[in-house]
Design brief:
The complex is a heterodimer of chains A (about 450) and B (about 475). Chain A has about 450 residues and is α+β, with helices and mostly antiparallel strands. Chain A has 16 helices and 13 strands. Classes of the chains: A alpha+beta (about 450), B alpha+beta (about 475).
Chain lengths: ~450, ~475
């Protein structure tokens, strides 16, 4: 199957894509409470389909790893359902399958969690929820399974390390984040994964899978009363409060850094970027709308227009902010035939400079707002998407009326807001540029611009 | 004529047609209708959100391409966004975006599809633009020269620099001799380099017409209104005389085939493809359903045989799976694949996969395994209803490959009827060497300074 792009609105993280709301419609009545365990619960009842989606998330992503044990967070998360409360991994997998339920995971730098989709009839639902609770509360993290998964993970890392896209991403995050934990690869490194022990995982689990930091999202065919019972069931057996770990602040880049890496691939993989914003940054909406115009709006964005549509230089060319608990990255990315890398870079740099200096036109701003506001219904048109919204609102501590006020927040953004927000957040003269796929290595560091 | 009045008349006409044999609603609430010009319109109301997904499916894919023109179906898909007599290049996506919508397209071996997801009130915009480019596409040499470069970048990104994608492409080319499924959807690079705008024009003029298309709408809509809207926008497009489709039947395989693919990689990999039956008469056949169950017993869940035995118990593989492609316009294939742990070989993986097949042939599968797979299939039916996009895609896909959305309930019924003995029987009959092609990935070191796969110094269009 070949598609015209990977995804039209590629660029914004899933959570962002989903966090939009309709004008003055209270069509998504979110119920919110705190469970006796201390967990925060977000619930939307919907009886249209006989199914239930549930997720439980923790601030337990790869940013909570220690550098020398990088990969512990991902391995802990991966092993949760590979043995728990006396059940083997095979028994767990069979029991879920026998009731037609599916378990998935969320894992990124900030967040680690499990999600469950099950039919909502009490017989099946109770089997699935019971299994999920046992996985969350009593993971065995078996040493022998760990040894096997380490071998698999190390093989996968070695394979990935040959690829130009992986090499580009690794170099990019190291240059943008230096000592900050956001520089770690989320699944760890060959050496650090190699030294993980069961004790590391148990320790990580006890410190980070804690009841009063849990966010429970429940969406679907159950009543409020049932949802309350589910939230208790899923969180009361979790480890009790430890001390919350705050992520360190991310420092801005002091100078431009360019790294060119030799690789025999047919295309150069290009990433340009810098630290962006926290999820609670007041510039959030201005940058959301601004980036939509710059490179987040798919075929109608400036970067795509300049790189792909006018010049045919790349199949995919985009930009996005990934707002996180600490300052997540701003990234511009594309892949182009090696001989064209220089031309493509020049085009993107020029596009970025112009945009940051001048901001969007009235017409661009209007079109972006029309798309984001008009596209709202598609952000909450399925149980799955609503669950993702609930989980993001909970995890990033957004107001419960976040969706209700979203459109107003978008409509309020002005050209000046966008220009000022970019001026504050993005300095085109202090960006990291990584190109993997060249004849020879080069490292270029521009003079300090302070 | 005043368009509002005309619209009302068409509504009345559509309602009258609804009572006739041309339109019918199935148990699942799906309604369908055929316009006089042969365009089929299928509507599935889903009122959970004020949204509508529109898809236009053309029964034209890479399987319809001729020698030397591989990739033309997909290139034409790209060109469908490059303007019509009244809509400028790139304007299509801008109009959809300004209405709050998302749009894109997909090309496969069997079909080409275009879609918009929008607020339900914007359905007329979708239909107007889709009808316009069904009939009035402008294929300019300037736009083509840029877009063919984009497609070549897509090929490099999607295939050339991805080891497993290269293995799959070469496996297909080896497994099939005459049938065009042997060619990649994206096209061979040399064909892309020599493709012309006129090639896309010929393809468009031959195949893009109402009687080669199906419109699918899923969302908060009323079928009668959608039919009327379709009549209004598509009704005036004349029917086309479609060229005959040559069957290009694949001759019988005469023995096992083996290839080796040497590309930079860390781990070896084996991909095996058996030629097996595909689904053609859903009510009468049983083998495709049994093959479907076989696929699921082998790798349908985390405790299924291949991941459980090869990865978790024996610990020889980092991943292992099975996949059955049994719905399509060309030959059916049943795939097995595995990647060894560091130090293992593709040959060991082939041996391990073959052992699992032999076990099924000799010992069969258990009722417990079948029950598990069936429980998953029944639950999946419910979960699928959570996505309008998926539902539209499923309907369009079945209709375009020559089956029917009405068969969906039948599929589940037939899957429930599959016996353990039938699963064993299809493995015994079809997973045999004379039907098999095996591809090994032979990992090569990455030579940092080198350049891989330099394109041939052929003529490049557009320079």
């Amino acid at each position: 199957m070949a598609t015209r792009t990977v995804m039209l609105l590629r660029g914004w993280t899933a959570a962002l894509l989903l966090c939009l709301t309709p004008p003055a419609l209270a069509i998504l009545p979110i119920e919110h409470w705190q469970a006796a365990s201390g967990a925060k619960v977000y619930f939307v009842a919907n009886r249209d389909l006989p199914m239930l989606d549930v997720s439980v998330d923790f601030p337990a992503g790869s940013a909570y790893d220690r550098r020398e044990k990088s990969g512990a967070a991902a391995m802990t998360h991966g092993l949760l359902r590979l043995g728990a409360d006396g059940l083997s991994e095979e028994e767990i997998a069979r029991r879920f399958a026998d009731v037609g339920a599916g378990v998935g995971g969320r894992f990124d730098a900030d967040r680690a969690g499990l999600s469950l989709r099950t039919l909502s009839d009490p017989a099946r639902r109770s089997v699935a929820l019971d299994l999920l609770a046992r996985i969350l509360h009593a993971p065995q993290l078996p040493a022998s399974v760990l040894e096997r998964e380490k071998v698999r993970q190390i093989g996968a890392l070695r394979e990935a390390d040959l690829r130009p896209d992986t090499q580009a991403a690794r170099a990019f995050y190291q240059l943008v984040y230096r000592d900050h934990p956001y520089s770690y690869r989320s699944v760890g490194e060959v050496e650090t994964v190699g030294r993980l022990t069961r004790d590391d995982l148990l320790d990580f689990y006890r410190r980070h899978y804690v009841a009063d930091r849990a966010v429970v999202a429940i969406m679907g065919d159950v009543s409020r009363q049932e949802a309350e019972a589910i939230a208790e069931q899923l969180t009361r057996g979790l480890p009790r409060a430890g001390t919350a770990v705050e992520l360190p602040a991310v420092e801005s880049l002091r100078q431009a850094v360019t790294r060119i890496v030799a690789h025999p691939a047919t295309q150069s993989h290009i990433l340009i970027g810098a630290p962006g914003i926290r999820r609670d940054d007041p510039d959030y909406f201005a940058l959301l709308v601004g980036n939509h115009i710059l490179g987040g709006g798919g075929f109608v964005s400036r970067i795509n227009e300049e790189v792909r549509q006018k010049r045919g230089l790349a199949y995919s060319a985009y930009s996005y902010f990934s707002p996180q608990r600490a300052r997540g990255p701003f990234i511009i990315g594309m892949q182009t035939q090696r001989d064209q890398a220089e031309e493509a870079l020049a085009v993107v740099h020029k596009t970025l400079r112009e945009f940051v200096a001048e901001g969007p036109t009235e017409q661009e701003l209007r079109a972006a707002k029309q798309n984001i506001v008009g596209g709202f219904p598609m952000r909450i048109d399925s149980n799955r998407k609503i669950l993702e919204n609930l989980a993001a609102i909970g995890f990033y501590k957004l107001p419960v009326n976040y969706l209700e006020t979203f459109v107003a927040n978008i409509e309020r953004v002005s050209i000046a807001d966008i220009r000022e927000a970019f001026a504050r957040g993005i300095d085109p003269e202090r960006m990291v540029t990584v190109v993997v796929g060249a004849d020879s290595d080069q490292a270029v560091t521009a003079p300090d611009k302070r | 004529m005043n368009s509002a009045i005309r619209f009302m008349q068409l509504m009345a006409l559509a309602c009258a047609l609804l009572t006739g044999p041309a339109a019918a609603a199935t148990a699942a609430g799906v309604a369908e209708h055929e316009l006089a010009n042969g365009l089929r319109v299928i509507v599935k109301p889903d009122r959970r959100a004020p949204v509508a997904v529109t898809m236009v499916w053309y029964r034209i894919g890479s399987v319809d391409e001729q020698n030397g023109l591989t990739g033309v179906a997909h290139v034409l898909e790209h060109m469908m966004f490059k303007g019509t007599k009244t809509v400028a290049p790139g304007e299509f996506s801008k109009l959809i975006a300004a209405a709050g919508g998302r749009d894109n397209a997909f090309t496969s071996r069997d079909y080409t599809g275009y879609f918009q997801t929008m607020h339900k009130s914007e359905l007329p915009l979708s239909f107007r633009l889709e009808a316009d480019r069904m009939a009035n596409l402008v294929l300019s040499p300037e736009e083509f020269a840029k877009e063919i470069k984009v497609v070549m970048e897509e090929r490099r990104w999607r295939t050339d620099d991805r080891p497993h994608a290269v293995v799959y492409e070469r496996l297909m080319a080896a497994a099939l001799t005459a049938h065009p499924y042997r060619n990649p959807v994206i096209g061979w690079m040399s064909d892309l380099e020599n493709l012309t705008v006129d090639d896309t024009r010929v393809f468009y003029e031959q195949w893009y017409g109402p009687n080669n298309a199906t419109v699918v709408v899923v969302g908060d809509v009323v079928p009668e209104e959608v039919f009327a809207l379709a009549e209004r926008h598509f009704g005036g497009i004349p029917r086309k005389t479609l060229p005959p489709r040559k069957p290009q039947t694949e001759p019988p395989q005469l023995g096992i085939k083996r290839i080796t693919v040497k590309v930079p990689a860390e781990l070896p990999y084996v991909l095996m493809a058996y030629r097996v039956p595909r689904l053609q008469k859903p009510a009468e056949e049983w083998e495709p359903y049994a093959l479907n169950m076989l696929e699921s017993v082998l790798s349908g869940n985390e405790a299924a045989r291949l991941p459980q035995r090869l990865v978790k118990t024996d610990r020889k593989a980092t991943s292992a799976g099975a996949s059955y492609n049994g719905v399509g316009r060309g030959p059916g294939l049943f795939y097995l694949s595995a990647t060894p742990v560091t130090g293992g070989s593709a040959a060991e993986m082939e041996g391990a996969l073959r052992r699992e097949i032999r076990r099924i042939v000799e010992e069969g599968v258990t009722q417990e395994e079948l029950d598990r797979v069936q429980a998953q299939a029944i639950a999946a039916q419910v979960y699928q209803r959570d996505s309008m996009f998926f539902q539209a895609r499923q309907i369009g896909w079945l209709e375009t490959v020559g089956l029917s959305h009405r068969d969906l309930d039948l599929f589940i019924e037939k899957l429930q009827q599959v016996t353990a003995e039938q699963v064993r029987e299809v493995a015994r009959r079809y997973l045999i060497d004379d039907r098999l092609t095996v591809a090994y990935l032979d990992p090569q070191p990455l030579e940092k300074g080198a350049r891989r796969a330099a394109p041939p110094a052929g003529v490049r269009h557009g320079n």
